[in-house]
Amino acid sequence: EAQVTQNPRYLITVTGKKLTVTCSQNMNHEYMSWYRQDPGLGLRQIYYSMNVEVTDKGDVPEGYKVSRKEKRNFPLILESPSPNQTSLYFCASRVMGGNTGELFFGEGSRLTVL
Amino acid sequence: AQSVTQPDIHITVSEGASLELRCNYSYGATPYLFWYVQSPGQGLQLLLKYFSGDTLVQGIKGFEAEFKRSQSSFNLRKPSVHWSDAAEYFCAVGAESNYQLIWGAGTKLIIKP
């Protein structure tokens, strides 16, 4: 089954404790992206990657890091989480070809930073 | 500035009634338009998209949307809603040549029995 898998789905942590949210897709997609979803703000892009070893900032990259060492994986790293990073995070992927392709989303990771 | 506006934060409709969710956009290039649905506890799923051609597009789950260039709108419709349609709906716009999408804030659809 074609899917984007995120882990963990739920996480409560404390300020400053490094964490990683993993994302893996099995569709051989070149493009992967991370979003955060906050009430009233819709989805905001954090980082995206157009291929292995190619990553770029989205609209709200501060406080986040990503890496793309393999095509299927695109982890999101919070080196020193703060309460304003409490949010619902989505990983998504698509084939290359600009916006003509459908974005496939993971089920989301709800993060709470105390 | 480029933006997508979904004027209704919440909409409540009775099961079996018709539905229209509004989406207005401001975009400098030829827009590619999308509606995605997020069911509770799930990720987003593409309902339909408009690139060119017929301005009335059909999607999954019985949804359709109409592109009106003069009004910069891409409203989503369904003739008769089912309880399973309760979800949050997002409109998004982008250009063909890039990968960035501008998202609306979402409209939460509540179905009354």
Can you offer a commentary on this structure?
The complex is a heterodimer of chains A (114) and B (113). Chain A has 114 residues and is mainly beta. In chain A, 0% of the residues lie in helices and 50% in strands. Chain A is built from no helices and eleven strands. Chain A is globular and about 40 Å long. Chain B is mainly beta and 113 residues long. In chain B, 0% of the residues lie in helices and 52% in strands. Chain B has strands spanning 3-5, 10-14, 19-21, 24-26, 32-38, 44-50, 56-58, 64-68, 73-78, 87-94, 101-103, 107-112. In chain B, a hairpin with a 4-residue loop joins strand 8 (64-68) and strand 9. The radius of gyration of chain B is 13 Å and the shape is globular. Chain B starts with a strand and ends with a strand. The mean pLDDT of chain B is 93. Chains A and B meet through strand 5 and strand 9 of A and strand 6 and strand 10 of B.
Mean pLDDT rating of chain A: 94
Shape by Cα distribution of chain B: globular
Structural class of chain A: mainly beta
Low-confidence stretches of chain B: none
Which structural class is indicated by helix and strand composition of chain B?
A: mainly beta
Helix content of chain B: under 10%
Give the percentage of residues in beta strands of chain A: over 45%
Summarize the biggest pleated sheet of chain A: 7 strands, mixed
Q: Beta-strand level of the residues of chain B, as a percent range?
A: over 45%
Number of strands of chain A: 11
Number of helices of chain A: 0
Oligomer: heterodimer
The gross shape of chain A turns out to be globular
Radius of gyration of chain B: 13 Å
Note the run of SSEs of chain B as H and E. EEEEEEEEEEEE
Q: Which chains make the largest contact?
A: A-B, 24 and 26 residues
